């Protein structure tokens, strides 16, 4: 019976639902909804292992407070999000990143409940009795140490609840210097600089100052404020191996000193609840960021309500496969963790509390391709705030970031890809942005080389912000090997300039439009028509080029990027992968490779489905490539390849992702793939594949609805036989943003089958940057 197979999660059902021609009765929808909410489909441990580094703790959408465990597990390596499945818990701290590489960030303002005597010679920790458990807004650790832990998070505070076993001495350790480290990458680790804590028996406040990390941040300070549900019987201090009884105030200026307080609640207390607030501004603001009247259960409920209202309730998903629904909502959750909304929390000079501010762009190089375009569909308000924040960072601090955390820019992996984030918002009419100011920020990136900032991994130019290799770009029209990452920078600078051209055009700046559109074609200057790769019968690849115009053959192989890191010609992608990284200029790329057939063959050769495993979807430069068959009207091959990648590179469970989540970029790729469309960032174009869900509705913020249906969908029936968009027959394998997500919303009605049908006989997707 098909009705028994339908699995979905939704909160609001205002429209009739049809699956394979059968109308699902409203009474069944209501019944099934009560059994299966979106929250039930979210796996917080998805992508936490295998290099995904997803944060599994408690937080809100884009929340500043990300409350989670900090774990030492030598077999796991660097705990980028604080979490590891084994090892011991050394603290429950208030701030974390999600899905990052480089090195761990934050893990600050920590408490740790324990029992028994405090031994300053031995690190206090908790051993788990079994695996941690979590659901949206809630996390729990059961230990073998006589105490169990639960915690939840608000926007800028958390509630931590400790349940002590009968008869044990209930204690809480507050280590002011606690922070995450990078034992496998000590050159990028964080260090404690100084701090202070003052307490009564009922609570405490203070600050901690940290420096270092992947962005090599200068010292930054976080203030904290906390209270306990019961007054402690006594408070002691510790510093290194020295303990002083009945001391409630202590400070330290020793780098990586271990110091703090121990609160002893005695053996009569079975539960201790602590409210902990944080702020970058002051202790007073940290205290005011706490809702002191809120209890633990109501905070969990409120946080879940916020997730439902802002994220999950916007979607209604139907699929006969439970795992597809799980995958959809779990990835939707992971796409809303960072950046962090810190409006009113920027301590840098000049900032005003009412200026919109987001931090933890870690990094835009990862997110601009599909995560930011996802926000511009699902939450235009957030998309607007992110662009406002980028603009405000420029206005107050001089440059938009590529990577940013702890209220400081750094590092830039390639181009100034905030330009593409801004352009994507601009062409999709994201409101409430001062576009003249935003465009000024973009022009700063395009015309002014940033001040030099030494980076031992790439000492040739600043990697803190802007375009470090800009002089070559302006002089030669490409980046020479005088700079690191010369090939990938050339490709990214071209795409970034295309982004400027689109905003300039919309603002009526015709000279700038022409200028930046011309510069967006400069990637062609590193195309060597004679370059070859061993084992392949076609010629022509992008390649390093010297200042005299000659192509540099030293150590060159289009199928290899060496270490693929800061000091190489290409960053996290091979030359053959970056050759496709010109989504604004695909028509010119097809002309350079010689024919549509060769273009398709080159994509074939990148993946094991038809060739070898050369492209790596675990790194973002190859995110768009599987969909590019659409440019030669072989859309069915895009469908096949996307299915292949989803089946072989993305999985379910803790080791679900093919690389770092990268702040939700991987999850956004999965979401678009499940829906059956993919954005070309900085344009209004979506390339069409085929959906993995039978039916999906997205309630847009403007009140309209975007709807997808897939008649005939099965494991064999994946190919598009026909398509209607907004009720009209459609023969193009691409669609414009306003057609689907404009004031009236939109619909896509797929008929799927098992045969490879060439239904896309209309015009190919537009190439904006091609210049004859």
TrEMBL record:
Protein's UniProt keywords contain Signal: yes
UniProt-recorded name of the protein: Glycoside hydrolase family 92 protein
Keyword check for Signal: yes
Domain Glycosyl hydrolase family positions: 285-753
Keyword terms of this UniProt record: Signal
Family annotation (Pfam families): Glyco_hydro_92, Glyco_hydro_92N
Signal peptide: 1-21
Residue span(s) of domain Glycosyl hydrolase family 92 N-terminal: 41-279
Annotated source species: Lodderomyces beijingensis
Domain of life per record: Eukaryota
Gene3D superfamilies reported for this sequence: 2.70.98.10, alpha-1,2-mannosidase, alpha-1,2-mannosidases domains, GH92 mannosidase domain
């Amino acid at each position: 019976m098909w009705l028994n197979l339908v699995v979905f999660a939704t909160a609001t059902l205002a429209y009739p639902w049809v699956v394979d021609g059968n109308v699902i009765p409203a009474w069944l929808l209501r019944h099934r909804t009560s059994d299966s909410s979106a929250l039930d489909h979210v796996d917080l441990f998805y992508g936490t292992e295998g290099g995904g580094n997803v944060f599994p703790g408690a937080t809100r959408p884009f929340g500043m407070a990300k409350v989670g465990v900090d774990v030492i597990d030598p077999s796991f390596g660097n705990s980028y999000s604080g979490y590891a499945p084994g090892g011991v818990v050394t603290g429950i701290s208030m701030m974390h990143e999600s899905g990052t590489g480089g090195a761990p960030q934050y893990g600050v303002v920590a408490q740790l409940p324990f029992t028994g005597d405090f031994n300053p010679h031995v690190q206090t920790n908790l051993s788990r009795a079994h695996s941690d458990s979590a659901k949206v807004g809630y996390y729990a650790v059961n230990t073998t140490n006589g105490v169990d832990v639960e915690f939840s998070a608000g926007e800028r505070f958390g509630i931590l609840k400790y349940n002590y076993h009968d008869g044990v001495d209930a204690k809480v350790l507050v280590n002011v210097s606690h922070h995450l480290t990078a034992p496998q990458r000590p050159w990028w680790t964080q260090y404690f600089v100084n701090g202070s804590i003052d307490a009564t028996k009922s609570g405490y406040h203070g600050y901690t100052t940290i420096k270092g990390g992947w962005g090599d941040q200068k010292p930054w300070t976080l203030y904290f404020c906390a209270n306990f549900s019961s007054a402690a019987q006594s408070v002691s201090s510790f510093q290194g191996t020295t303990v002083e009884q009945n001391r409630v105030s202590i400070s330290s200026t020793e780098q990586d000193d271990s110091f703090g307080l121990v609160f002893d609640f005695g053996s009569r207390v079975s539960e201790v609840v602590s409210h902990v607030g944080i702020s970058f501004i002051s202790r007073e603001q940290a205290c005011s960021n706490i809702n002191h009247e809120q209890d633990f259960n109501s905070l969990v409920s409120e946080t879940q309500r916020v997730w439902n209202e802002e994220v999950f309730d916007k979607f209604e998903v139907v699929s006969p496969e439970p795992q597809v629904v799980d995958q959809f909502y779990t990835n939707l959750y992971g796409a809303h963790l960072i950046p962090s909304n810190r409006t009113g929390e920027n301590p840098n000079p000049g900032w005003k509390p009412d200026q919109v501010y987001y931090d933890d762009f870690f990094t835009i190089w990862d997110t601009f391709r599909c995560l930011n375009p996802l926000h511009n569909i699902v939450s235009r308000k957030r998309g607007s705030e992110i662009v406002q924040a980028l603009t405000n960072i420029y206005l107050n601090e001089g440059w938009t970031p590529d990577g940013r955390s702890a209220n400081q820019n750094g590092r830039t992996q390639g181009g100034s890809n905030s330009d593409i984030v801004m352009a994507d918002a601009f062409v999709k009419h994201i409101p409430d942005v001062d576009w003249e100011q935003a465009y000024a920020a973009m022009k700063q990136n395009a015309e002014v080389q940033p001040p030099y900032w030494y980076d031992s991994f790439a000492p040739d130019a600043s990697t803190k912000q802007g375009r470090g290799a800009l002089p070559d770009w302006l002089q030669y029209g490409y980046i020479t090997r005088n700079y690191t990452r010369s090939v990938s920078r050339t490709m990214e600078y071209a795409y970034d300039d295309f982004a400027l051209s689109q905003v300039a055009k919309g603002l009526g700046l015709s000279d700038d439009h022409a200028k930046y559109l011309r510069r967006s074609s400069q990637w062609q200057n590193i195309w060597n028509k004679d370059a070859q790769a061993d084992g392949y019968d076609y010629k022509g690849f992008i390649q390093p080029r010297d200042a005299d115009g000659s192509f540099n053959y030293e150590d060159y192989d289009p199928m290899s990027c060496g270490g693929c890191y800061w000091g190489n010609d290409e960053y996290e992608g091979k030359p053959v992968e970056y050759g496709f990284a010109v989504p604004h200029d695909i028509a010119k790329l097809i002309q350079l490779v010689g024919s549509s057939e060769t273009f398709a063959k080159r994509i074939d050769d990148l993946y094991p489905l038809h060739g070898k495993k050369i492209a790596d979807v675990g790194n973002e430069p190859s995110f768009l490539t599987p969909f590019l068959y659409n440019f030669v009207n072989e859309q069915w091959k895009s469908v096949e390849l996307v299915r292949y990648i989803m089946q072989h590179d993305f999985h379910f469970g803790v080791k679900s992702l093919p690389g770092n989540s990268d702040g939700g970029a991987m999850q956004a790729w999965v979401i678009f793939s499940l829906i059956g469309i993919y954005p070309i960032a900085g344009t209004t174009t979506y390339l069409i594949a085929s959906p993995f869900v039978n039916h999906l509705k997205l309630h847009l913020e403007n009140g309209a609805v975007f709807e997808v249906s897939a008649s005939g969908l099965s494991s064999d029936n994946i190919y598009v036989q026909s398509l209607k968009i907004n009720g009209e027959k459609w023969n193009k394998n691409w669609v414009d943003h306003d057609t689907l997500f404009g004031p009236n919303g939109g619909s896509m009605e797929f008929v799927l089958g098992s045969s490879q049908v060439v239904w896309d006989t209309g015009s190919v997707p537009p190439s904006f940057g091609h210049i004859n």
